[in-house]
Design brief:
CATH topology of the largest domain: Zincin-like
CATH class of the largest domain: Alpha Beta
Order of helices and strands: EEEHHEEEEHEEEHHH
Shape: flat
Largest sheet: 4 strands, mixed
Bound molecules: zinc ion
């Protein structure tokens, strides 16, 4: 059961009625789940029919990983994200007084003498934007759905874009501000929905869907694009 380079593992289950599913684990292994009595030939056929898809997925993951692992250098031309778009960095020698890092005319301008502190300056810039934009959006959606948080905190979390405490205080990562507005709104509405229901129960997802019918699209976007959030 190999395609020359890849093999797969079969998990047969009597609880599974009809469909086969194929999963690529985070280690890059392939697992096919099938009903108990599916013949090997049928499983092999299923695997073959998914080979192009598998190759694409694995390639995409490698690219993601490379992007994630490559450190930021904060050099001229490097791109930085803001609200779903990317803008190149330009190192400048400004005349007169100006903040050391600004976004203007489609570019991030960084003062040359402050370049050694580029990372801190970016974090500060993102944090400030996050505080403004996320604060505004939370107020907007909170009024709309009549779900009122007790506070808003901005964090640096990498994978946890938002959270809701037992006391209904919401936290959001400043990294979220790199994502498009719809994605930011999804995380905000998700956390607001936790004011009603703390756990990810079926009821929780139903509430969320009534607030934001297309939420799955945004959730999917987050899964596929998390590499954007590194700094
Ligand atoms: Zn949640």
């Amino acid at each position: 059961m190999a395609d020359g380079t890849r093999t797969y593992k079969i998990i047969r289950s009597k609880n599974r009625k009809k469909t086969m599913t194929l999963q690529i684990t985070s280690e890059g292994n392939i697992v096919i789940r099938t009903p108990l009595r599916t013949p090997d030939s049928e499983i092999e056929h299923f695997f073959q029919s998914r080979k192009i898809w598998i190759a694409k997925k694995i390639k995409a993951r490698e690219v993601d990983r490379e992007i994630q692992d490559s450190p930021r250098n904060f050099t001229e031309g490097e791109k930085f994200y803001y609200l779903g778009d990317s803008y190149p960095l330009e190192i400048t020698e400004p005349k007169g007084v100006r903040p050391p890092l600004i976004l203007t005319h489609g570019k991030f301008l960084l003062t040359r003498e402050k370049a050694p502190h580029a990372k801190e300056l970016f974090v500060k810039w993102y944090r400030n934007r996050a505080r403004e934009i996320i604060g505004d959006r939370v107020r907007f959606w909170s009024t709309r759905f009549d779900l009122v948080p007790t506070g808003i905190t901005i964090t640096s979390a990498w994978q946890r874009y938002g959270s809701c405490s037992a006391q209904n205080s919401l936290s959001f990562s400043w990294r979220l501000i790199m994502a498009p507005y719809e994605v930011i709104d999804y995380i905000i509405i998700h956390e607001l929905a936790h004011i009603k229901e703390k756990n990810h129960t079926e009821q929780f997802w139903r509430h969320l869907e009534s607030f934001m019918p297309e939420y799955k699209k945004q959730r999917h976007w987050l899964r596929e694009n998390s590499h954007m959030f590194r700094l």
